[in-house]
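ugh ok fine here u go
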Amino acid sequence: MSRSLLTRIPVPVRFGALIAVALLAAACGSSGSSSSSSSTGAQAGASASGSAMVISTKAGSAGTFLTDGSGRTVYLWVKDGTGSSACSGACAALWPPVTTAGSPTASGSAQASDLGTITRSDGTKQVTYDGHPLYYYAGDSSAGQTNGQGTDSFGAKWWLVAPAGTSITSAGGGTTPSAPASSAGGGWS
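structure:
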C-alpha cells in the first residue's frame, strides 16, 4: 500500500521532501553544535572541577580589570540593570554571557562577596559582579585582549570591570561609579 502511494507522488515532490528533511536535520545539528561551542567558550574560565567559573584579575594599560580563570577579559554593559541582562539574540552572539554551572569563585583582586549569578531566559546561570552581568567579547581572540573596551554596540557602552565593581571608562584606567554618584555627578556613560 505505501509503495503504491509513493509511486503516485511525482519525483520532484519526493526529492523536495527529502531535501527538506535533510535541511531540517542539518539545521538541528548545527544549532546544537553552535550552542555547545558557545557554552564551551563561556566555560573557558571554569575551575579544574569544571563546574564553577573563576573570576580573576589582570593588570594592563587600562588598570586592573576582571578576567575569567583563563585570563579572558570580561565586560559589563551599561544598558543592563543591576541583576538583570538586556543582552540576548544577536547581542549575546557578539557578547557571550559568562556562565557557570556552579557558584563562581574569586581569585587575584576579585572579591568573592561581589560574585553572584542571575538566571537567563534560556535557564543558564550568568555570572554577575557587584550586580553587573558579565560578558565576553567575540572580538577578543586571546587572554588579556581588551578589544571590546569602550565599544558602543546594541545601544550602550561596554566597559572593562575594575575589582571594585566599577566600570573602567578610559585606556588610562579611570573609573566611574557603577551607579550614579550624587556628589561626583558620575555614573555610567
